[in-house]
Design brief:
The chain has 182 residues and is of the alpha/beta class. It has a single domain, classed as Uracil-DNA Glycosylase, subunit E. It is 37% helix and 14% strand. The chain is built from six helices and five strands, in the order βααβαβαββαα. The protein has a five-stranded mixed beta sheet, with helices on both faces. It is globular, with a radius of gyration of 15 Å. It starts with 7 loop residues before the first strand and ends with a helix.
Length: 182
């Protein structure tokens, strides 16, 4: 979902059972989305700071949102089989988004899924496989992969991920996009 000519792809784990799975749009109608869309709005990547349903008028600017898994996994823990079955969809989205140069992965599962999808389309990291960590960054073929902790309640309520940390990720993604045009 988002801007078809986006230069930034945001990858999450899957639609949340009581959020995106219910509303029809990833990160919409759940607390993770509340935190995420506020940060995207502050970064100028979303037209509004909230999203409650797929028809609420939210528009993404220079950003496309995808997920590794296509449906809400039981207990929010997808199996390797589910991940592998959904991976071709993410790879096809990556191929279709011709302008994307920066991929932001929300969480370790999304980081791994993004790396797998990139490998499926022939894009591999320089050197050894990059490790996930908040603000980790890697060159993967033609892409720059950037990591963030997931904006889940588990991370935001404990302070593991703060609004300032999330803002810094989107600021860095925008810097990477701007520098790729030089």
């Amino acid at each position: 979902m988002g801007d078809a000519s986006a230069r930034i792809l945001l990858v999450g784990l899957a639609p949340a059972a009581h959020g995106g799975n219910r509303t029809g749009r990833v990160f919409t109608g759940d607390r993770s989305g509340d935190v995420l869309f506020q940060a995207l709005h502050r970064a100028g990547l979303a037209s509004r700071p909230t999203s409650i349903q797929a028809t609420d008028g939210l528009e993404l600017r220079d950003l496309y949102i995808a997920a590794v898994n296509r449906c809400a996994p039981p207990d929010n823990r997808p199996t390797p089989e589910e991940r592998d079955a959904c991976l071709p969809y993410l790879a096809r989205e990556l191929m279709a988004l011709n302008e994307v140069g920066v991929v932001v992965a929300l969480g370790a599962f999304a980081w791994d899924g993004a790396l797998r999808a990139m490998a499926a389309i022939g894009q591999r990291p320089e050197g050894s496989r990059p490790r996930f960590g908040h603000a980790a960054e890697a060159r993967v073929g033609r892409y720059r992969l950037l990591a963030s902790f997931h904006p889940s309640q588990q991370n935001t309520f404990t302070g593991r991920l703060t609004p300032a940390m999330l803002d810094a990720i989107f600021e860095r993604a925008s810097e990477l996009v701007a520098s790729s045009g030089d």
